[in-house]
Amino acid sequence: MENKKYFFAADLGATSGRTIIGTLADGKFELEEVTRFDNNLIETGGHLYWDIYALYFEIIKGLKIVAQRGIAISSIGIDTWGVDFVCIGDDGAILRNPFAYRDPHTFGVMEDYFKDEVDKKDVYSKTGIQFMNFNSIFQLYAMKRSGNSALKNASKVLFIPDALSYMLTGNEVCEYTIASTSELLDPRTKQLDEKLLASIGLTHSKFGKMVNPGTVIGVLTDEVQRITGLGAVPVIAVAGHDTGSAVAAVPAKDEKFAYLSSGTWSLMGIETKDAIINDNSYELNFTNEGGVEGTTRFLKNICGMWLYERCRKEWPEVQGMSHAHLQQEAMRCEAFKSLIDPDDAMFVNPASMVEAIQTYCKQHNEPVPEGYAQICRCIFDSLALRYRQVFAYLKEIAAFPIDVLHIIGGGSKNYFLDQFTANSCGVKVLAGPQEGTAIGNIMLQAKASGDVKDIWEMREIIANSIEMKEFLPQDKEAWDAAYERYQNIVNQKA
After folding, report:
1. For 277-399, where are the alpha helices, taking DSSP H only?
2. From the candidates 11, 79, 242, 343, which is the catalytic residue?
3. pLDDT of 149-178, one tens digit each?
4. Radius of gyration of the chain measured on its C-alpha atoms
5. 242 an active-site residue?
């Protein structure tokens, strides 16, 4: 036990979070979950917010448990979802809870921004970021237009992981991977773009110092030390964007891989040395986000298990039913009976996801799925076909052959969908690790402490520490036929 080092990871997703202890010894790591909690949207005054104080409280709670157990942690790292941010006042206080990216205040704003501020193609040429209405640039533009009091009085704008690190250390930074999700950062200069900042009335001074993954942000404040019972533990800027940490944990042997980070969102992409910004990537709406060690995560956001998670909450008959049982029920239904485009705008945040799926099917002359099993089957079939579409784009753009698709994250536990993805994409799939984000967070802390040399040593340790499940393509003709039908459906005008 004396040889082990202990690292504390706060891994916060858009629906839930957890605190985790990771240990590294003898070329292998181990994880232990300390706490798990919901991350709830707050709806009030016509807006949706995150509770930044509740998230801080949960991190403190995890740290107190660790201290009470007498565990001497070497460092702390925080990763979260992208794009959202907190406004800090001149006196250092948080000015209000941050908007959630699903808030409707950005609906229609993107088009107005391109018309009135900076041309769409110019924005993409500067940032290489996939256009999504909730990107930070459009949130900030919407807030500026509405005269938002928090933004008007902000001394600093801190992205969510940076805001939580600030609450722990008192130091303000702007971590590179999370900043890259904003659609304000130029991946070539690796700095926020001045023209885009000016278009929303901001300057570089409104953001913290740009830092790369592995940078020490600071140590716990005296207040946090007193509350938790810990000493002056350093807080490390890991890849603050959860996908950045997850991709760092892909147990690949070489560069010839694609990844699918499967959770609330599915993010499919490749790792490249430089950003890929050209007419093709613009037309296909691919994104270039910051990775570790100067890499770029060239990827596309796909509406992932959000569809399934939202539907599951609407079915009283499945409450208490395990995911595995629910998925087995779905497998008893007819394959490809009903197909949808998972990325259609009507699935962003409908009042009822079940009704949205059924309405989409009616509008596209698809059989309307009834009951939880048929709807789940519709979701899984459709996701696998959407993955095929994006995977085909990646194969076309990548400068290397893609030999394997690594599926990481919580969604990798859905072995039916893993097999469907192998079948649909026609490629070998390796599933695992399930806790990819937390593992990447911890391994980047280990790198910062000098215990790991580089990303490839990290990946070798991860591959030696976990068991991956392999899925090989099957049923080619059936999936080819389904894909042809899927393409016809998504190209229809509803």
Report:
1. 279-283, 306-314, 323-331, 353-363, 371-397
2. 242
3. 999 999 999 999 999 999 999 999 999 999
4. 22
5. yes
